[in-house]
Amino acid sequence: MLSDVMEDYLKAIYSLQMEHGPPVSTSAIAEYLGKTPPTVTSMVGKLEDRGLLEREKYKGVELTEEGETVALEVLRHHRLLEAYLTEHLDYSWSEVHEEADALEHHISEEFERRVAAALGDPEVDPHGDPIPSADLTPPNSSGLSTLSDHTVGDVIVVCRVSDRDPEELEYLSEAGVVPGTTIEIIDVAPFGMVTVRVADSEREQSLPESVARTIRVREPDESCEDEGVSTA
Amino acid sequence: MLSDVMEDYLKAIYSLQMEHGPPVSTSAIAEYLGKTPPTVTSMVGKLEDRGLLEREKYKGVELTEEGETVALEVLRHHRLLEAYLTEHLDYSWSEVHEEADALEHHISEEFERRVAAALGDPEVDPHGDPIPSADLTPPNSSGLSTLSDHTVGDVIVVCRVSDRDPEELEYLSEAGVVPGTTIEIIDVAPFGMVTVRVADSEREQSLPESVARTIRVREPDESCEDEGVSTA
DNA sequence: TATTTGGTTTAGACACGTCTAATTCAACCT
DNA sequence: AGGTTGAATTAGACGTGTCTAAACCAAATA
């Protein structure tokens, strides 16, 4: 049986692998999880012993297929919970992450099935992140561009935002920058600061490059799987 | 911050206190939680240090007000979850206990509020157990009699069954002995074996004394708070 | 090539929750 | 009252996950 902590490591490594590809460094994991590097080295050793990842000393780490499957299972739990909480328990977009983090390790397979059924087997969570399917095959990491790939005058639709930082999420939520909204890029200042106009509202919002980089967008005529669950 | 484990001890002690009153012995706690007595002694020491219970060496243990409040908080979580799972996620009566045990330590206050709201602030869970109110004042341990207090010919209504043993629960569920059903006592055999007829169905069921003792009942004309959430 | 530097790992410690084996206590029974 | 007995506690150990401090490696620099 894997501990909650091990599951957290696998999830973290999976995310980091998605973002920057393998190998994933000790310090990156430490940073992501708020642990010290020696702690990570030690844990990574145990995960390697269990065949959940491969490690090259002083280089980094890469999940095995088995490790990836575990990560996807946890991720599925997490995103189903996020979707359920917004759909059925009236949570707002920016509140769900913490709750899902706490619950994701403790739900049964039965619970997972029933929640998925209650939601009609959704494909994305409220932030637009794809929900791994029940068979835990790796979701195709869609070729969506990011907001910072675009330039002044572009009109695009938000598909997906990062759920990592609650404050950032709160800010985007306020700003109306949520999956499904159409935005126009008004200005790109030095250091990548992007100013956008949100369709329908007259409002303009400026976003630092660090945020713009995490917002996935599409052309207005394309479609990304789905548009995320609606929310208050 | 209290650990999950500590919460489990407090919940266990609370239950044992309800059943047999204080003081609660080391071995009773050990038995209830499936731990060894030395483990319990050690944990009980820590709980005492935190002011959650009072201990008299070689005698036993009794929760302080603070300890009881914690226990009630966990119990509230547990029973709200049980109610929610049967009401909104289609769980059956006998399946909810384990799931609630796993989740009860990990839900936020916010989650508790929203679940309670979604259920309309119920007063009992699907087994008929009273749900502690949000202010965590001790629920009045109602003066319900048990099935084994009654005798042949008595016609009574089931209010509450124990949720401790999944098999027992499954059996009672099959038998139709659930909160709200009216039963008539047909026979009381030696060793307290009780045979009852379930109203509406022609079926007769025999229950060992150990089970009969845990079933709370009322006279048909009285009312106990509520009758538990309906279920499949 | 030698050195510096920054990230990684090893070494060693600690808190937690658990166990088994040994001891101690208290209550009961001659 | 003295001895027996069963429960409770102490003693000591272990696994897990974490830390700090020290040693180490490898990549970039001079």
From TrEMBL, chains A, B:
Location of the HTH dtxR-type domain: 2-64
SUPFAM superfamilies found in the cross-reference section: C-terminal domain of transcriptional repressors, Iron-dependent repressor protein, dimerization domain, Winged helix' DNA-binding domain
Pfam families xref list: Fe_dep_repr_C, Fe_dep_repress, FeoA
GO cellular component terms attached to this protein's record: cytoplasm
UniProt keyword terms in alphabetical order: DNA-binding, Iron, Transcription, Transcription regulation
InterPro entries: DtxR_MntR_Metal-Reg, Fe-transptr_FeoA-like, Fe_dep_repressor, Fe_dep_repressor_sf, FeoA_core_dom, HTH_CRP, HTH_DTXR, Iron_dep_repressor
Biased composition (Polar residues): 138-147
Coiled-coil annotated spans: none
DNA-binding recorded as keyword: yes
Subcellular location: Cytoplasm
Chain positions covered by the region annotation Disordered: 120-147
GO molecular-function term, one example from the UniProt record: transition metal ion binding
Subunit structure, as described in the record: Homodimer.
Family: Belongs to the DtxR/MntR family.
Name this protein carries in UniProt: DtxR family transcriptional regulator
Organism from which the protein derives: Haloferax profundi
